[in-house]
Amino acid sequence: MTLTPLSPHIGARLDGLSLNALTDDEFTQLYQAFLEYKVLVVPKQQLTPAEHLKFGKRFGELEPPHPFFPHVVGYPQIVVIETAPGNPPGESFWHTDMTFQSAPPKCSILHAQHLPDQGGDTLWCNMGAVLESLPSSLREQLTGQQACHQLHAFAGSRYDHTTPEGESVVTQKSRDFPPVHHPLIAQHPETGEHSLFINEQFTRHIDGLSDTDSQALLDELFQLARQPEFQMRHTWQVGDIVIWDNRITQHYAVTDYGDAPRKLHRVTVQGQRTLAVTAS
């Protein structure tokens, strides 16, 4: 196993591994690298759907089928992220996966199936490093505060449509996933690291603030995640596996390839309620 860091704050590449034949010792090393670097790129992996699921289960219990995304036939826990002629990607947001849940996922494992000739990179951001960059006065202001997370970003997207009863699918699903509240500053349950736990796609409102003040503060914080010094960027190759720690990262899919064919499979691992950081 060869490990190569990819940026100062986030990401590493692991070479010399076959993920469908890892020994327990190799998985332990991989898992420690996952916690340290937040995002791991493992190239040239040939995993069947069954092997993809088996590997994912080494990280924990898997998420049930996604409320909107399609899945691999016969494998409802493997999401298909696909673009095809006439079906371009929708609007992209910086986001942490599924924070509209009371217990957002622990991690995701994405496997590249086929790719456009150009474009389609993905970026990840270390939200722990973002938090560390904040002035101490702003960190104190955010400590102990919560924000509301919702499904609202799916409204009007390609995953939304009107049911025969005349109701939006997103409105319908929102009854299964009512608004949840997560701390603005969260503590990682395994490493103890603190991070800024917000994202453009699902964070709706900071509790206790007016709409105007909440949006102004969120916009200020969202902008920090767009700073390249906290990020890594991955240019996909067929067979790449990328594993990321959803508890301390955000990511962004660059949709610069029109409707050129692109397909990736994603397995997502269940997490736990977000741990709040309290004032010292």
UniProtKB/TrEMBL annotation:
InterPro entries xrefs: AtsK-like (IPR051323), TauD-like_sf (IPR042098), TauD/TfdA-like (IPR003819)
SUPFAM superfamilies tied to this protein: Clavaminate synthase-like (SSF51197)
Keyword Oxidoreductase carried by entry: yes
Keywords: Dioxygenase, Iron, Metal-binding, Oxidoreductase
GO molecular function: metal ion binding; taurine dioxygenase activity
Source superkingdom: Bacteria
GO biological process: sulfur compound metabolic process
Domain TauD/TfdA-like, first and last residues per copy: 4-268
GO cellular component, one term: cytoplasm
Family affiliation: Belongs to the TfdA dioxygenase family.
Protein name: Taurine catabolism dioxygenase
Annotated source species: Marinomonas piezotolerans
